[in-house]
Structures are given as C-alpha cells and as structure tokens.
Amino acid sequence: MDTSADALRSSGEKPPPLDLSHHFSEVTKRRMPSEMKRAYNLFAIPGIMNLAGGLPNAQFFPFDTLEAQAANPERWTPSSDGSAVPATHIAVPKASSEPDVMKRIDLSTALQYGQAQGYPPLLSWVRQFTREVLHPDFAYKGGPDVAMSCGSTDAFAKVLHLFVNAWTEGINDVSERPGLLCDKFVYGIPLSEGLPRGMNIVPVNSDDSGMSPDALEDVLANWDSSRGKRPHLMYTITLGHNPTGKVVSLERKKEIYAVCSKYHVLIIEDEPYWYLQFPSAAAEEAKSRGFQEPNTLPREITSTTPYPFLNSLTPSFLKVDTDGRVIRLDTFSKTVSPGCRLGWVTAQPSIIERYIRITETSTQQPSGFVQSLVAELVIGPQPEAQAAFARATLAGTASKFSGWQMDGWVRWLEGLRGSYERRMVRMCQAIDTGIHEIKTSSSISSDWGVVTKTKLIDYTWPRGGMFVWLRINFESHPLWNAPSTTNRPIDGLTLSTALLMFLTKKPYLVLVAPGSMFSSNPEIRAGSGWAYYRLCFAAETDENVDASSQKFVEGVHKFWRIKSAGEIQKLVDSFPHASGVESLADSMAQMGTWLGC
Amino acid sequence: MDTSADALRSSGEKPPPLDLSHHFSEVTKRRMPSEMKRAYNLFAIPGIMNLAGGLPNAQFFPFDTLEAQAANPERWTPSSDGSAVPATHIAVPKASSEPDVMKRIDLSTALQYGQAQGYPPLLSWVRQFTREVLHPDFAYKGGPDVAMSCGSTDAFAKVLHLFVNAWTEGINDVSERPGLLCDKFVYGIPLSEGLPRGMNIVPVNSDDSGMSPDALEDVLANWDSSRGKRPHLMYTITLGHNPTGKVVSLERKKEIYAVCSKYHVLIIEDEPYWYLQFPSAAAEEAKSRGFQEPNTLPREITSTTPYPFLNSLTPSFLKVDTDGRVIRLDTFSKTVSPGCRLGWVTAQPSIIERYIRITETSTQQPSGFVQSLVAELVIGPQPEAQAAFARATLAGTASKFSGWQMDGWVRWLEGLRGSYERRMVRMCQAIDTGIHEIKTSSSISSDWGVVTKTKLIDYTWPRGGMFVWLRINFESHPLWNAPSTTNRPIDGLTLSTALLMFLTKKPYLVLVAPGSMFSSNPEIRAGSGWAYYRLCFAAETDENVDASSQKFVEGVHKFWRIKSAGEIQKLVDSFPHASGVESLADSMAQMGTWLGC
Predict the structure, then answer these.
(1) A–B: how many Cβ contacts below 8 A?
(2) In A, residues 49-68, which contact B (CB 8 Å cutoff)?
(3) Residue A564 CB contacts under 8 Å (≥ 6 apart), including other chains
(4) pLDDT for A466-487, tens place per residue?
(5) Domain annotation covers residue A292
(6) Are B324 and B429 in a shared domain?
C-alpha cells in the first residue's frame, strides 16, 4: 500500500484501485482500445440513415414476440413451499417506442447486434443490483464496474485469457510458468481450463473455516521458482463452497486478502451459491445429533441494504477489496437456470474494459433471447409496451404485470434459499441416521450382548451451497488392507470405487460424485481424495431427496457387510472404464464437465 | 495426396480426411480427451437417482414455458413481399414425456446444463440439414460433423484457439510466427482476433471472380520466412463476400483449394450470406446501364437436393474438400437474428472433437433459451407436447402448429433471398442514376454546349450478400492534389474522410462504411482503401432503401461542386476523432466491432 493511498484513506476518501495492467497477458495487452465513444456521435445524428452497419433489418426476424409463463417471486416461500402461487404471462414486443435505450426492452434491439458489455436495460439493472444492493460498500474509489457474461465458465476462461500467457514445456522458460492457487478440494472445470494453458495448479490447505491464510502465506513465502512463476492468480468459492459446503467469514476473508495483497495475487471469486447460506444449519445439526446447540454469537451485520435477507448474508471479497484485485463471477445459472448461459463479472473498471475487448471478438454478447426475457422478468415492460401488448392479446392479462423489480428479485432468492435449505436439512437428517454402524454381538455364555459402534461417515452439515461433503471411513471396512484378487491389498481407492458402483446397483440406484473429481492434483487424489463423496441435494426431484438419502445410507451399511475380496473386485471391474482403477479418477474428473457442477 | 488415397478413389470409395492434428495449437493438444461415452452408462441406469451432478432442479426455474409469435415460412414470397401472412404461436413446454432426447424439446432439458456440442434435437436437425441438404456431396469418407456455436465470431475465436499458438515478439522465435491468409479487402473482426495473437495478416489479391489462385500460389511459393512461419490458415467468405459482394464459383474454388492442399493450408470458410445469391443481378445490371444482357451460360447444377432453390446456389468449399481441410462457419444471425448468438461449425470429426473440448470449459453451450425456441420453430412440438399445450391454453391455437420442417426452413431462406435481392436491385438502380457527373458548358460564341461526362462511381452489382461495394473516383474531384490548408496537398484519404462526413450532414444524413474498415493491412488502407465505400441494403427500413440511396448519390454529386480546400478541411476536422486524419482508418476499423458487420 503506498503512502498516498494511506493519506487518502486517513482523510476519509477511498483511494482508487491499483493499476494491475502489468498482470495482463501479452495477447490482452495487444488488443486495441475502443474508439467507440468518439465514433458513437456519428450514429447518434438525428435522422441518420445507416448504410454502414452490416445488420439485417429487424423486419426479417421471424420472431414477432418472445413470451413466457413466468413464476411470481412469491412462488417459493421462505418458510414453506407455496407452489400454488400462479404464474404470470410476460412478453417482449417486437418494437417499443421508448426512447431511452436503458429502458427499452424489445426484439428490434435485443435480437439485433448489440453491446459486448450487455443488453443496455439488463446491464443497467445488473449494475444497480451489484453496486447498490449486492456490494453496497465497495472499498475503492468509484467502485467496480460490471459486464455481462455467457455464464461463469465462459467468464473464467476469458479471465484466464486476460491474465495468463499460455506456457509450453521446452518452448517457454520455466520461470514464466503461470500458476493458479486454489482450494485443496476444488470445483474441477476451472482447472480443466487452466491445465491446458500450462498452468501450475497450486493447492492451499483449509481448516473448518475455509482456506487457511497461514497455509497460503507458507506457499507464497517459500515459493520454489524452479516450479514456475510465483502464482499471481487464485480461484476460490467462498459462499457455499463446491464441494465442501463451507461459508468463509468476513474475518477470514480479510486475513486471506492481506496475504494476497502482500504477494500481488489477484482473486477470482466464483460465487454461484452466494444467496444459499443456511442460518439453520448449526442448530439443526446439533438437534439431529443430540448435541447442545452451539452458543455462537450472531454474525455482525455489516451490510446496510433495505433487505434484511441480504444483510444477513456473509459478504463477498469485494467488501475488503481496497486494491481492486478481486474479480467476482456471478451467474443466473442457479437463480434462473443453467441453460441461460448468462451471468456477469464484477471488477475494477480497467479490468472490465479488457474483458469487454475480449468479448467483442468472441462471444460478442450473451444471446438476446435470454437477455430480453430475463430483463422482461426482472424489470417488466415499460408502460407503453405494456399497453401495446394488452391491445395485441385477447386476454390482455399481461397489462397488469410490472416485472419482479428489485423487491421481487430479492424475494425470489430468499424463496429459493428456503427451498434448498429444507432439502439440505432433510438430506442431512437422513444421513445422520446412518453415521454409525451399531453391532450387537451376543455370546452364549453371557446374558448381555456387546455393542460396538463404528463411525462410517464423517461430515459437517453444509453452511451454504448445494452439496453435502462426506468422508467415508473406509479404514473401518472389514476388507481394509485385506489381500485382494490382484497383486495389491485392498486400498482406499479400490473400496471407494467399489462402493460408488455398489450404490448404482439395485435396490440402491444412487449415483454420487467421488472426491477424485474435486482433488486439485494427483497427490491429493491418491492421498485422501478417494475418501470423499459429494452429494447434491438440488438436482433430484423433491420426493427423491429423502428416498435417495435413505438409499445411500442403506447402501453404505450393506457395503460394510461385504466380506469377499472377489465381490469388491467385481464391483471395481464394473466401472465403465477400460483402463482400470487408477483412471477412475481421471474419468470422473472428465464427468464433471458433463455434470455441469 | 498419398497413393492409398488415390487407390481408394480409383476404386470408387472416398478416402478418409487427412490427419491434421499436427496443426493443433499446444493448448489444444493438451486438452483432455472425453471419457464421457464410457461414463455415460452410469447416468443411463434405469431409475438411478442422481446425487452426483451439481444441477438445480428444473422445478426451480422461474420459466414455465417459453413462447413466441413466430412468422410462417411463407411470410416473404420469392416474387413479392407477402407480409400479410400471419404469425403462429409457438411454445416450449416445461416438461415433455417424449423419451427420445433427440426429439424432446422442453425447458427441463433446454434450460438445464447440456451438451457442449448442442441441444440434442437442434443439433440433430442441424446435422441433417448440413449433411443431407446443404452439403449433400461431401468429398471425404464419412463426411463432416457439426457442433453448435455461439455465433460465427465466437466460432472463429475458438478455431484460432484450436490452431494458433499466440506469438510475442522478443519472446517467441520469428520462425514460429503464425500467419492468416485473407482477401485484400476483408471483414475486419476476424483480423481483430488474429492480430492480438501476434498473427501475420497476409492479404491475397483478387480479380473479378474472387481470390486469385495465382496470387495465392505466388504468396506461398515465395514465402519469406523472415516474416514468420508460412501461413497454415486462410480466412475467407466466398458466397456474397463482405465487403465486395462477389460469389466465388466452384471452378475457382477448385483452383484455390488445389493451392491450399499443396501448401497445407486450412481454409476457414465463413458463409453468413450463402443463401443470398442474386440470380437477377447480371441481367438487371445490364438493363439498368443500357448494355446488352450478358450471354452467360447457366451455371452447371451440381447439387441434387429436393430443393431447386438450393440446387441453384453455388456450393461451399466443402464440396471439393477431399482432404478435410475446410472449417465452415454457419450462423443463424442473418436467417433468424444476430441476437440469437447461435450458429454451427462444420468440419472433419477430429477437428469438431477438439472444438467441443474447447467449448466445454468456456461457453459450454449456446443459451438454451434460443436453442429451444429455434428448435421449436423449425422442428415443431412432438404430438404429445402439442396436445398438452393445447389443453393448457384457452385458444388452443398452438395445436395445429407442426414446425416449419425442412421444407419451411428452405422456403423461409428463399423468401429472404427474394426480399434482399429486391432491396439490392432498388439500391443499385438508384446509384446507377448517379454514376456520372454530366456537365454542359455553354459558350456565348457558339450555338451548342459542350457535354462532359465524368465517372464518379465505379462498381459491379453484388452477386450475393448484403453489401454494395463502390469505388469513388476521388481522382476526378476538382480539389484532387490541390494545395490544402495544412502542409500537404489534398489526397485521397482526405477527400474520402471529407465525403464520409459530408454525407452525414443535412440534407443527406447517410452513414456509409469506409474502405479503411476492410483494408487487410495499413499499406492497402493507405494505397487504395480510402477509395472505397460499402453500402448495406439490409439494415435500413424498407422505405429508406430508396431514400438513402438517392441521398447518397445527391451527396456525392454535391461534394464534387465543393471548390474550397478550407471546406474540405472543416469536414475532415468534424470527424469525431481527436488524433487527426490518419486514425480515421483505425477508428473506423474499431467501429466494425460495434456495427456487427
């Protein structure tokens, strides 16, 4: 931190974000700056006839409206599922006479070529939501800007393009090899994009509260430059971590941020589950396990939005981002649907500017179909368009719809949080019934039986997100380390693969995600990755949440009764991969892409 | 061509495409192969409950249907605009019980995470259209595969990622510098993506029939390796070239292809206007100019689809692609709307496989909103979904809609071709009235006037596409080479900039695209780029096509009456760019991104 920044801060004014352009990749640096603002005047001449742009005329679009039956924001109540709340018909008209492009939602603009930063009315709404509601207390002068993305996976690929020079062994010098810091257990797709670029994936250990600042300091302070450049990028999820379900507190975030600032590390914060934080988790967990409810102090409320729901949530890294080194990825995938392929990036303006340049010559913009329908949903029609649509439809039901607005949007998120939290509680309650194997062995010579209690499953209820992260204590299995039908004794990976396959057989029919999918490198995969399973309580139908959790527990217990090494080997062999046990991990890692997790 | 391929061919069997994997970039080579097919069995177990995937349940998507008022394919008749043909209401239901994923169109699948290759029913339809209707006579064994794209700009960026190692002066060896062959005048966005990657842009001269095979041979045979690696990629548009409006014949394609094959060049063929070929252009041009209609032989019909319209069109490079070196880019931008951000790539299967790997960790898939609505439009609902929707709506009008089907899709394209062809004819007729400046100077001492005829505009009517490409003969302007108010005499770039700005003033109010935007390098820009303007007959409203063309002609003629160097300088100064005349070209090149041309 330089002294002028300190001076500004002591005067009560926020300093501007740091200039981080030395972190840009060579390709990113070479992208042309935009001359658009100056040239824009030519398009804005009143009455100008445009023969310059190579655009088809909107007359020739075969869609005259886009419409939808859309939920009201009250559909899912925070306390109980109110699925009876009806839907509303929404429609995007072909053309609107609204002169303000920030307000005009119609197909003549939404289905035409548009701005890389986003469809103006939606961009304007997202910017307002981001700056005034989601992160009202930004930490540097002027605060962050936003740009729409085609979902966070694409945003992440573009952020790597922005900051990373691809590296090839034997061609590039090892001192230039870029690195990516991440959690020990990590969502896999970002690594699948980083690895082909030649990046060092650098795991950092966690404790119960999330990534450990001491472990991070240790990695960076003792960096061995024979491995490559000291990493200048971190990828992390902090609010409902995938796969571990942790929520990283603001206090912990400050500690991690201080280390990142010291070592000039940029933080890519991917938060698809930020609004899925579960206040009941600690109490319900204690109740389920017969413990006394932990006497934790209520978290300090640091946000001051008009929405108690939002104020109750742990905030983003952006809250402590005095340097402008945080790039936050948001998505509509979990709040609207994954098929949107729509999200946004939040970062200091000079990073957003480069992001837009990359977008202009690749994806150009998210699809106008989804941008206009989501805009219509959350903003609603302008009064003029509303009346026109009412005239054009027989029923005229649309005339009363005025969009969810910010209140409705926050209400929708709160309803989703309630629904997912209830699913989580039901799944964890079901699993808790099967944590231990209890065996009573009676002996003929005595009047009493001997009760042995073996812990099969070890886990903490998730504090956020969509996942339960379990450690299966394979070490307690009767066949642990027993001779196998192959040359080696039965190890953890073998038992883990066998149980995964056992669970997919009748009568269990449950598919879980193995820890190997989330192990950030082969050592972690071999060392302890096999011990973990991730269970998602979001994907299945409501009815199946209970059924599948129970079947899972039954399956685990039944698996502990297998006494034959041959049966274990048969299960392992049934895994649909030709090249044997080891590549299960690789195979599962690849599955992640398809699972969309 | 190796001998085994020759042997196969002489036996009547097509040889397989060449292995081109040595052309893959280092990053592309390092991407993992997909293990999906093997792992897929796990998901396909009947009755399996999926706790593995990190997907939200479709119950929580706020969209219960997506709907639209959509045109019938007969809306635009090939002979006259039949805009009275009504629209049809279409709807994508929340869930369909259709078991075949290739046929199921519903929001539970379309708005969920999906396949990178594309939404199965739409992908299946596009594959059929591509292989059976658009390119029925593919030239290598098995023929090409397809993958959906987020529009051709994104497809092009991904194809560069697939084949090009980014290159940086001073870091990488000059012998490794990648090159991109292109037409002398070229659509600019692909260059905006290639240049930051450090590519050599290598223009090839054209004649009236398109890119010259001799010029191409000359460039490649005499390649100066001190400039970089001999280019292994070509970018070109051959059917309604942007900006020149040329259609490159099959005969010429064969000649260009032979050179590419000889020098191992991959061809990226970008064809957004392939169906906009104008059979009336030659005859109408002759009529307009009072020439005899050219007695050209009708083109040999080489395609054998059930559609006379398609058979009449000049085919793609894919028709002669015996090696599998053609990557064709298609888009729904001009047939449905640019805001779709939806298209597809066609190439040999091993290239498509790499393309899908790149997609999986970036865009993942085009938006399900547009994929499902376009699928619904062209395929139509399954009978079961149709009945369900009819029950759910009061009017039940949707029950009769069965999708455009292939017949309707081809009919829609033919209708668009007719509509754009009529616009083109009207614009060219209007411009033809102003090609010459005719001046009658009468002298007092004689009874007759002297008529002088100066050619101001030189052009050929476009044979396809959306653009009229004009050379303005600035050399005939009274102020050509005259002393200016600055140090230098008035040159072409000055006059061209001045005319561009003059046309934006009242009473003309016409904005045209300058040739500098399409000059493939600074030398071409300085040498002759300034002499050209591109006029688009597609973007403006129908009424304005005539008005804007007339205003353009009037403006050009009026500009020839300007006698004051000061007035010219004032016009140049009015160009909204701070850094002077030279950067007009840069500024305009950047405008291309925004114009979406």
Answers:
(1) 475
(2) 49-68
(3) none
(4) 999 999 999 999 999 999 887 7
(5) no
(6) no
Least confident of A81-85, A366-370, B39-43, B530-534: A81-85
Å between A137 CA and nearest CA of chain B? 30
282-321 of A, contacting B, C-beta below 8 A: none
Asked if A171's CB is within 8 angstroms of B53's CB, the reply is no
Which conformational region is residue B118 in: left (phi greater than 0), alpha (psi within -120 to 50 degrees), or beta?
left
Please state, in angstroms and rounded to a whole number, the distance separating the CA atoms of residues B514 and B192.
17
Q: Give the amino acid at B450.
A: V
Query: Using H for helix, E for strand and C for coil, what is the string for B298-328?
Result: CCCCCCCCCCHHHHCCCCCHHHHCCCCCEEE
CATH code for the domain of B178? 3.40.640.10
Task: Write the DSSP symbol of residue A129.
Answer: I
For A391, the domain range is 63-114+365-399
B41: chain A residues, CB-CB within 8 Å = 576
Q: With contacts defined as CB-CB under 8 Å, which chain B residues touch A49?
A: 509-511, 540, 544, 547-548, 551
Nearest-Cα distance to chain B for A496, in Å, is 15
DSSP characters for A500-538?
Answer: HHHHTSTTT-EE-EEGGGGBSSHHHHHHTGGGEEEEESS
Which positions 331-370 of A are in contact with B (Cβ < 8 Å)? Answer: 333-334, 336-342, 360-370
Q: A434 to chain B nearest CA, in Å? A: 17
Please indicate, yes or no, whether residues A377 and A328 belong to a single structural domain of this protein: no
Here the ipTM equals 0.91
Please indicate whether, in this complex, the C-beta atoms of A466 and B591 are within 8 angstroms of each other.
no
Residue A591 falls inside a structural domain: yes
Report the number of distinct structural domains present in chain B.
2
How far is CA A399 from its chain centroid? 36
| pTM across the whole model | 0.92
